[in-house]
Design brief:
Layout lengths: L5 H7 L13 H32 L5 H4 E4 L3 E7 L2 E2 L8 E4 L5 E7 L3 E11 L5 E12 L2 H6 L4 H17 L4 H6 L1 H16 L4 E12 L2 H43 L1 H16 L12 H15 L1
Antiparallel strand pairs: 1-4, 2-3, 2-5, 6-7, 7-8
Helix pairs in contact: 5-7, 8-9
């Protein structure tokens, strides 16, 4: 019966250091291990032989039980007498198992989508918001996902909910509303690092929606409206200031040339007459009359 050593387990990422310190009497430790392995090997050899005898006596019907097929996107992790077989996961395609002593688990390698339910999160500035997200993940190592964790998908989903609450709890509300890309990247790195020991690869995390309390929405809307009104008043005041400067410059130009004032009045009269009014009231400035008086006095002399 094939056995897996420590080096093969390390290559597969399945070997874990024991939490207890190694014993001082290493000779006795290895002697007991050899004895247990020998006993297990003898039993395994006998059961394997019986399994082959059963296959031979039940041909060709036993072939329907011994040969299995997995799809391109699947892998099969085989256990023989409760021990993980060497060589890693099998597939895609056809593979052979022994009846009665072999068991296998199908592992789907396709990307899965998990819609994280809305989580009530207390932000750094003590605001309660409801946030939901989407997590895209897949199985990167079929053997580890079966041997290291009871249910890799369920564990990943629970960890996604906890990571969402922990990540958003360290940020203020304005960062959650405006900096979602950075938060998603941080969550992805945290989840990917935590699920690496489970054979799970987190490909992407997206925050779908941030729901605020109704009172907070009204307060933010009032604040935004007041800010817009303040900007509108500032813009109107700046317009009045620029208009007054332009009028002052225009009055200085007209004051330097009396003829310019007369031309301006004629332009105003032309504009009024274009509107087809029956009665036109046009003010005549006194300065315009003084021009004609001076011209008459000059002619009489």
């Amino acid at each position: 019966m094939p056995r897996i050593g420590h080096e093969e387990l390390k290559a597969e990422g399945l070997y874990l250091q024991p939490p207890y310190p190694p014993p001082t009497d290493t000779h006795s430790m290895y002697s007991h291990a050899d004895e247990s392995e020998g006993d297990s090997g003898i039993c395994g050899t006998i059961l394997t032989a019986l399994s082959w005898v059963l296959i031979v006596f039940t041909l060709p019907f036993s072939l329907c039980v011994c040969f299995k097929v997995v799809q391109e996107y699947e892998r099969a992790v085989i256990f023989r007498l409760g021990r993980l077989m060497s060589g890693g996961a099998k597939g895609p395609g056809i593979f052979f198992i022994l009846p009665c002593i072999d068991a296998y688990a199908r592992v789907d390698l396709r990307t899965r989508t998990y819609d994280v339910p809305p989580q009530e999160v207390l932000t750094k500035d003590s605001v309660t918001v409801s946030v939901d997200a989407v997590v895209y993940y897949r199985v990167s190592n079929a053997t580890i996902s079966v041997a290291n964790v009871e249910n890799a998908h369920h564990s990943t989903r629970l960890l996604a909910q906890t990571t969402l609450r922990n990540t958003l709890g360290t940020r203020p509300l304005h960062e959650i509303l405006s900096d979602r890309d950075t938060i998603s990247s941080t969550m992805q790195n945290t989840l990917d690092e935590a699920t690496d020991a489970w054979g799970i690869k987190v490909e992407r995390v997206e925050i779908k929606d941030v729901r605020l309390p109704v009172q907070l929405q009204r307060a933010m809307a009032a604040e935004a409206e007041a800010a817009r009104e303040a900007r509108a008043k500032v813009i109107a005041a700046e317009g009045e200031q620029k208009a007054s400067r332009a009028l002052r410059e225009a009055s200085e130009v007209i004051g330097d040339s009396p003829a310019a004032l007369q031309l301006r009045y004629l332009q105003t009269l032309n504009t009024i007459s274009a509107e087809k009014n029956s009665t036109i009231v046009f003010p005549l400035p006194i300065d315009l009359l003084t021009y004609f008086v001076k011209a008459q006095e000059a002619s009489s002399k």
